[in-house]
Amino acid sequence: MKTNKISHIILVFFVLNVVSAQHNITIDGILDSEAKTITIDQKIVYTNTSDDTLSEIFLHDWANSFSSKTTPLGERFSEDFLKRFYYAKDHERGATAIESISDTNSNTLFWERYNDIQDIIKIPLTNKLNPGDQYTILLKYKVKIPSDKFTRYGYHNNGNYSLRYWHIVPAVYDTKWNIYSNKNLDDQYTNVANYNINISIPSVYNIYTDLQKETISESENTKLIQLTGKNRNTVELYLEKQSTFYAFPANGVQFISNIEDNDLLPAMKSVATTRIIKFLEKRLGPYPFEKILVSESDYKNNPVYGLNQLPDILRPFPDGFQYEIKQLKTITENYLEKTILINPKYDSWIRDAIHIYLMMAYTEQYYPDMKIVGNLSKIIGVRWFHASELEFNDQYFLAYKNIARLFLDQPLNTPNDELVKFNANIANAYKAGVGFKYLEDYLEDDNIVTESIKTYYDNNKLKLTSSEDYREILTSISPKSVDWFFEDYVSTKEQMDFKIKSVKKGKDSIEVTVKNLQNNSMPVSLYGLRDDTIISKTWVTNINGSKKVTIANDNLDKLALDYDQNIPEVNRRNNYRNLKWILNRPIQFRFLQDVEDPKYSQIFFIPEFEFNVYDGFTIGSKFYNKTIIRRQFDYKITPFYGLKSNKLLGSVSFTYRHQIADHGLYQIRYGASGNMFSYAPDLLFKRFSPNINFFYRSKDLRSNKRQRLSIRSVNVFRDRDENNPVSTPDYSVFNVRHRYSDFNLTDFKSYLFDYQIAKNFSKISTTINYRKLFLNNRQLNLRLFAGAFIFNDTEKDGDFFSFALDRPTDYLFDYNYLGRSEDTGLTSQQIIIAEGGFKSQLKYPFANEWITTFNANTNIWNWIYAYGDIGLVKNRGISPKFVYDAGVRLSLVADYFEVFFPVVSNKGWEIAQPNYDEQIRFIITLSPETLIGLFTREWY
Question: pTM surpassing 0.85?
Answer without folding.
Answer: yes
